[in-house]
Design goal:
Strand content: 15-25%
CATH class: Alpha Beta
Largest sheet: 8 strands, mixed
CATH superfamily: Aldolase class I
CATH architecture: Alpha-Beta Barrel
Number of helices: 9
Order of helices and strands: HEHEHEHHEHEHEEEEEEHH
Strand order of the largest sheet: 1-2-3-4-5-8-7-6
Radius of gyration: 19 Å
Number of strands: 11
Shape: globular
Helix content: 25-40%
Structural class: alpha/beta
């Protein structure tokens, strides 16, 4: 959470339930989309979240419906969301130390978030894989890498993903806080013998490993957006809560699908607009030394 918080969008700027589901229909009908992830801001504060998930599930071509959440409200939603069709769960957690957690998130919810992670892990029939996303920052949580790996002991339905710190507006980007994947791996390998896990999806952005010890049943992954980008295999697009299409997380250019939805555009015309935007996508994002100089949304307003 940025230190100064974020400016809330007016309610009428946010996509409605029907507008979201219409976009899902367009993407499934014309674009062959088979995976949807609802992110944020924070998706669990939407009162219609269960309805949205239920609406997405009505499209048989969608195989994966996921959310990325801070985990604060999960105790109320885990069962209703699973019943509606949710089958993928990512929880953001950058520290296992209460004081650091509260500094990073600006909220006193450490105990609740850990309890909700445990609650999700205790529902393997509903959530066969729970992913914890940890953004690694030099001098802040690099001393916790081993503690996070330890979470995978005796926990077959847990994956911990370490994410390289990335430059966005309001996240106080500093190269001094950037800690590359290879350095993370070096620290972890000092304690553990790791083996690579075969990548089942060619478009998976995560480098997966497992501790070579049968007591460690979970997985450990690395998202290397800065040190080893995966632009050539990236097949993701993002639509912000206020309906802006972003074809690259790091590109500050946006196209308003909300305005198209609220005009007299047909589904075909909206998909044509999406295609034209995709054709303009750059081959790769800007280098790490240039990215901080461009104006882009804070990550919390893009969605992880």
């Amino acid at each position: 959470m940025p230190e100064k918080g974020v400016e809330l969008s007016p309610a009428n700027h946010i996509l409605t339930t029907n507008e979201i589901l219409r976009l899902i229909r367009i993407f499934t009908t014309y674009g062959g989309i088979n995976k949807i992830r609802l992110t944020g801001g924070e998706p669990t504060i939407r009162k219609d979240l269960v309805d949205i998930v239920h609406g997405i599930r009505s499209y048989s071509s969608i195989k994966t419906i996921g959310i990325t959440t801070n985990g604060v409200l999960l105790h109320r939603l885990l069962e209703p969301l699973a019943k509606a069709g949710l089958n993928s769960l990512n929880i953001s957690l950058d520290s296992l130390v209460q004081e650091k957690f509260e500094f990073l998130t600006r909220r006193a919810a450490f105990t609740r978030v850990l309890a909700n992670i445990r609650l999700a892990l205790d529902m393997p029939n509903l959530y066969p894989l729970v992913k914890i996303n940890c953004v690694v920052m030099q001098g802040i949580n690099t001393d916790e890498l081993i503690d996070f790996v330890e979470l995978t002991r005796d926990q077959s339905n847990l994956a911990v993903r370490f994410i390289e710190y990335m430059p966005f507006n309001d996240n106080k980007w500093s190269e001094k806080k950037y800690f590359p994947y290879e350095e993370m791996l070096k620290i972890i390998k000092q304690k553990y013998d790791l083996e690579k896990v075969r990548q089942e999806d060619k478009n998976d952005t995560t480098k997966w490993y497992r501790v070579k010890d049968n007591s460690y049943q979970g997985k450990v992954g690395f998202i290397t957006s800065m040190s080893e980008h995966f632009c050539s295999t990236c097949n993701r697009i993002r639509i912000t809560a206020d309906g802006q299409l972003k074809v690259c997380l790091f590109d500050n250019k946006e196209v308003s699908l909300r305005d198209a939805l609220r005009s007299d555009f047909s589904d075909e015309e909206i998909y044509s607009l999406i295609q034209r935007t995709l054709y303009k996508k750059e081959k790769e994002h800007l280098p790490v030394n240039i990215l901080p100089t461009q104006q882009n949304r804070p990550m919390i307003l893009i969605g992880g």
